[in-house]
Amino acid sequence: AALAWLLVLLPATLVGVVTHYPAYRAVGFVATGLARGADDALASIKVLAAMLLFPLTWAGTAVAMWRWRGVEAALWTVVSLPLAAYAALAFVERLDRLIGGARALGLFLFKRWAFLRLLAERKSIREDILALGREIEDVSPA
Asked: Which residues lie closer than 8 Å to 78 by C-beta, 6 or more apart?
């Protein structure tokens, strides 16, 4: 089912990736430059940069389509590019999960000891998080 969705999303994904990749890279570049090592501000700066650069990408592409093909093409561009961006995001996330599942299966089949070690580590991390949650509940005023 996951592979079928990837195939369905592929055409819109290609448009989304080609159109949005320059803005995506620019967001990282701008945010890293403005944050200057302030890791706590990096995510906020990325959000603000994305809120500026992605709509500029849509507007610039719409203007180009308007000059090339007219108003109707520009309107279709304004509507379809955010949807193509979403399709690209959904595609990449699904592909990432599919690859992660394949890697887990590979570990399970060919390196069972590594798979079991990762399971034990995950269980230990989960228990530590739950213990911290209980500790916070005990300390925080009700």
From this structure: 58, 59, 62
Domain boundaries, the chain: 10-95
Q: What's the rounded Cα separation, in Å, for the pair 58 and 81? A: 6
Where does residue 87 fall: left (phi above 0), alpha (psi -120 to 50 degrees), or beta otherwise?
alpha
For residue 66 the two structure tokens come to 């308007």
Residues 6+ apart with CB under 8 A from 38: none
Q: How far is CA 72 from CA 61, 75, 82, 99, in A?
A: 13, 5, 17, 39
φ and ψ at 70, to 5 degrees? 105, 180
- Digit-coded pLDDT (tens) for 102-126: 999 999 999 999 999 999 999 999 9
Q: What are the pLDDT digits (tens) for 67-105? A: 999 999 999 999 999 999 999 998 889 889 999 999 999
| Contact in structure between 61 and 19 (CB atoms under 8 Å) | yes
- Give the predicted TM-score (pTM) of the model: 0.73
Tens digit of each residue's pLDDT (9 = 90 or more) over 51-60: 999 999 999 9
